[in-house]
Amino acid sequence: MRMPLLRFLAVTLGAAGAARAASLEDRVEALFRPPLGEWIALSPEGQRVAYTTQAGGELALVMMDLEQSRRRKTVAVAPDRDAGPPPDASRPPTQLRFLRWATESRLVYAPVVRVVPLPPVADASGRPLPNPDGPTVLSPIMATDADGRQRGTLVDARDFQEVPEEARRSLADFLRTPTELAARRKGEPVRWRMPHLDILGFFPRDRDQLIIGTRGAYSMPLRHLVDIRTGHVQAYGEDWPAPPGEPHVYDWFRLKVVGERQPAAQPTTLWQDEDLGRAQRELGAKFPRRIVELLDWSETRTRVLFRVTGGSDAGRFFVWQRPEDVVLEILPRAPWLPAAKLHETRWFEHAAPDGARLSAYLTWPRQPRAGPPPLLVVFPTGFPGGAQPAFDPEAQVFADLGFAVARLNHRSVAGVRPEDEAALRAALDRVSVDDALTTIAGIAARDQDRPFDRKRVAVLGRGFGGYLALRALQLEPGMFRCGIAIDAPLEPFAPDIARAIPAALLEPDASGGKKLSVLAQAEALTQPVLLLVEPGRSEGSAADMEALRTQLQRLGRPPEHVSLDPGSAAARTAARAAVYRKMEAFLTLHLQNFSVTIGPTKEVP
Amino acid sequence: MSRPTVIIWLALGLAAGWAGPRGQAAAARAAGPAIELPPMMVEESVSSVPWLHANVGGAEFLSRCTVTTTRQFIEAWLAQMQLVRALVPGEFLARTDVPEVLVLYSQGLEQTISADIQRELQARDESGGEGRRGERVNIAPNMRLADRDMHASIVYIDEAQFNAAGLGIAPSHVRFLLKGRVPELPGWLVEGIERAWHRADLALNPITLAPLLWHSERESDALASDPTHPRALLPASELFAPEAVRAVENRHPRRAAARRATQELFFRWAIVTGGATREALWKFAARAAEGPVTEEFFEACFGFDFAELRDRLSDYLPKAVQETAWISPGALPPLPRFEVKNATPGQIARIRGEWERLAVGHVHRRLPQVREPYIAQARRTLRRAYDAGDRDPRLLATMGLCEIDAGNPAGAGSFLEPAVAAGVARPRAYHELALLRFAALREGAPAEQRFSFTELAPVFQPLQRALGQAPPLPEVFALLAEAWALCTLPPSPAEWTELERGARLYATRAEVAYPIALALARHGKKAEAAAVLDACAGAATDKATETEIRALRAELAAAQ
């Protein structure tokens, strides 16, 4: 019955698709291009800022003078003494683990550590054994001047390579480096290990001295001072605690925790420092309805670096010049995406009937197709999962295609409320689907002058979100017309779900978990589904989805299925755009079919 | 006498003046600031060049240029004002029932200062006493002088080089027109338009906006070459802050510069974007003139919120510093027909006398020691027509106001009474007459004495008639409220409406809000009185009014 329509749509989509292919790819490339400033730091006097950028697939640092010329200087992050094997060309670009200004003119940074195991060795019988040496730790700590000169690696793990104590047999041995020692012991192997280098901060009275810690080799953890001008290393006998990582916010000048990032539907920081709390409030007033995140500050806090996200914008960085009360925009996260060309995105929050706060981002297409746009409901990826980001490239792509997109947060995104536990334990899927229904009703009630098409609502989710998308189709086929599940585990006690969900919420019931299983209730999946699987991402999910596919085929409702390109290839623009084209074709086919009566599909023999 | 070449900007006072060429200007800078006095016109007996007169477009022109120059000037003025209204709708400009006065004077004519004034200036120079050290006195060749209900300009024209096509409306004059609008427009709009006007060329069709200058050429170039170049824009919540909040905001020069630049950028963006955005601007501006605006209202107008506005302005900025924008004024109506005729002696005396009267206030503020000769000259000019039997109500009103400005209220009544009785279009005349009557009524009476409606009727009547004329003067509402506060009879619903209109139009003017609140309180409308005071909370005011407001608030609180 559907074939003529399918052919008609295929022809239509084919012609339109050919015309739009290039523009969709361009759009996807722009939307998914890595944003600027994934790492960003303000200098101690607040006159300079340094941030990361990816140029030609390589990580680079940009340093900018905020006070005078406001010129930028870009330098590549390329360890100059990287003795390890060349990085795999298909690997994503280098990432940083540290970026801070030591002084007003000297920047210290460190790429993410690479640990390269040595090849196995063979025993006397030729059997392979793990290599007793190594592994090679590539952990360069680098520095550059603000003008890009005097740039290079200060120290690396190999500078702290150690040999076992027993390898040093004389006083002279203690004065020899491991390399010298190995050279002296001709033919006699000398064991060695490289420690991990932890960056602990700058010496308070002399910020030219970087404090680092070594651990993981033969000796006890040690502290060292590294001169950031010369790379000269000296032992530091004092204990120096490692700065706490997320969710704590650490003041590198006052050497204390000043706040804590809170799990919430929108990023929130609980400031223990009164001054920073005040700064947060004042900046919040300057950017109403936006998320303001304080990232860094000058030593006197007269300059505060912060990021603003939310709304239709991809986000921007600012420096608040407090004495002047001037907010200097220093960098858009994605200057290639002007706000006026993005679809409007609004934060939406309302109360569920039981009082729980439900929240979502609603992205509205600037140019909907004829009539009210269809609604695509996106479930969060995990449980309770991180909060949905304020800016989501995928939502923009779907809005480009004419969909209104509602990205839901779990009601428990800020933590499970005690009063929710019983309901979640009884039917975690039901709670999430009911919340989705409540949110849809809330959106419809709030923007009555801008309606979406309530007869054309689709669901989408990844991972646990994919599971919920399929459960939504099973539980509420009258509301949801079709759905897309990506790498979704389909059994409630599958490792991918069990890992994410607090054990207390996932107790097997008398049915042995069948009530929560997509697979066990495959016959209830009457609405069209598109299953997307990335090979190698999750064996369990892939197996579940294959099983579902088989079951639905057996039921005479074969799902559409797409096997994604494995690994990083999925991130390639062409591959990504192709996937979105498939999703669009699927959604268009199943949402634009006006003749279909809303409700469970009746099988006709 | 040599004079500099004058580039004519309509209704703009130019600094180059009597003192002449550039060399003198340089010397003037070295000598210190100059006081500019209004130019005085020669007595008729000195020159035989005829005066011309035209009345068109809400303005009276009195010209001593040739008919051709006069006509070209008037046509250019009318055309330019049409273009002004194409950029700024007429409802956002000052509206007055009193015709604007423009006096055109040919540079080819001799310009003289009266002997009395010359003597006063000479005496001042010789004594070196009363004037501030280093100040010089120039006679400005072009100047605009304003009273509370009208304004007048004098323009010296070098007819040999006159080119009507090169005329334009000066930004300062646009500001004047915007500032005179009632209800008062918010500062961000007035300042934004004025700055944007500096980049506008209305002599071209379509109207041309030169690329935006963002702080400096260097900054603008940097933005043009790097769209991500750092820039400081004021957040929208601060851009649109009410005047009371602006009055106490950070005064750092960098912030002030950011405010000025953002105001200009916002206006330019809204105008250049055109269509619905331009309509949204004026809708938003109209509301902002009536009170503080909310983000919700902004969103209802523009379709997005404050934070997104900031983003959009920031994204537009790199384009604005590069683009020359053209704005079509749309289909303009044909210019009104007018005739340039020889002026009658009455017209000459009335209009010249008006100018000279306006000059009195200007001189009084800048060089009080020569005020008397200016008063004398104004009286002389006006009297000439009066003595010739002219009883034009406009002449009488000007004579009455001249006496008020000269500090002779006792002599004003005899001119104001017949002018008002004849229904002259002159709101200030009605106010001054009411003030005289109110003062006479209260003379010798205790401050708190109340009067019957019959006793106050002669005060109410001219004030109520003044409210039917434009502009609605704040002092009219204030005096009306003051009189009602002392009246034993409460106002009728229609009369309350008049006071409520005053409270709405001048919500943030304490000198208007206080007497209205007092009248409300005295007649039992305590809640309404408190609301009026709340609306002007935080507005700048003098100490005395502040004290009175505090006392009234205490009284209202005690009554609850």
Helix and strand topology:
The complex is a heterodimer of chains A (605) and B (560).
Chain A: H1 3-32, E1 40-42, E2 48-55, E3 58-65, E4 72-76, E5 96-101, E6 106-111, E7 114-116, E8 121-122, E9 128-129, E10 136-138, E11 141-145, E12 152-155, H2 171-174, H3 178-184, E13 196-203, E14 206-215, E15 222-227, E16 233-235, E17 248-251, E18 256-262, E19 268-271, H4 274-286, E20 291-297, E21 303-310, E22 313-321, E23 326-332, E24 344-351, E25 357-364, E26 374-378, H5 393-400, E27 404-408, H6 421-446, E28 453-462, H7 464-475, E29 482-486, H8 495-500, E30 529-533, H9 539-554, E31 560-563, H10 573-591
Parallel strand pairs in A: 26-27, 26-28, 28-29, 29-30, 30-31
Antiparallel strand pairs in A: 1-2, 2-3, 3-4, 5-6, 6-11, 7-10, 8-9, 11-12, 13-14, 14-15, 15-16, 17-18, 18-19, 20-21, 21-22, 22-23, 24-25, 25-27
Helix pairs in contact in A: 1-5, 1-10, 6-7
Chain B: H1 22-31, E1 34-37, E2 52-56, E3 59-63, H2 67-87, E4 100-106, H3 115-127, E5 136-139, E6 143-146, E7 151-157, H4 171-179, H5 187-197, E8 200-201, E9 207-209, H6 217-225, E10 231-232, H7 236-239, H8 243-247, H9 253-273, H10 275-288, H11 295-302, H12 306-320, E11 325-327, E12 341-342, H13 345-366, H14 371-387, H15 393-405, H16 413-421, H17 427-442, H18 453-466, H19 474-485, H20 493-505, H21 510-522, H22 526-535, H23 543-559
Parallel strand pairs in B: 1-5, 3-4, 4-7
Antiparallel strand pairs in B: 2-3, 2-12, 6-7, 8-9, 9-11
Account of the protein in words:
The complex is a heterodimer of chains A (605) and B (560). In chain A, strand 26, helix 5 (393-400) and strand 27 form a beta-alpha-beta unit. Chain A folds into 3 domains: 48-189, no CATH class; 256-332, no CATH class; 344-591, Alpha/Beta hydrolase fold, catalytic domain (Rossmann fold). Chain A is an alpha+beta fold. Chain A is built from 10 helices and 31 strands. By secondary structure, chain B is α/β, with parallel strands linked by helices. Among the domains of chain B are: 22-168 and 337-342, no CATH class; 187-202 and 211-323, no CATH class. Chain B has 23 helices and 12 strands. Chain B has helices spanning 22-31, 67-87, 115-127, 171-179, 187-197, 217-225, 236-239, 243-247, 253-273, 275-288, 295-302, 306-320, 345-366, 371-387, 393-405, 413-421, 427-442, 453-466, 474-485, 493-505, 510-522, 526-535, 543-559; strands at residues 34-37, 52-56, 59-63, 100-106, 136-139, 143-146, 151-157, 200-201, 207-209, 231-232, 325-327, 341-342. A 6-stranded mixed β-sheet of chain B has the order 6-7-4-3-2-12, sandwiched between helices. The chains are: A alpha+beta (605), B alpha/beta (560). At the A-B interface, strand 22 and strand 23 of A face strand 10, helix 9 and helix 12 of B.
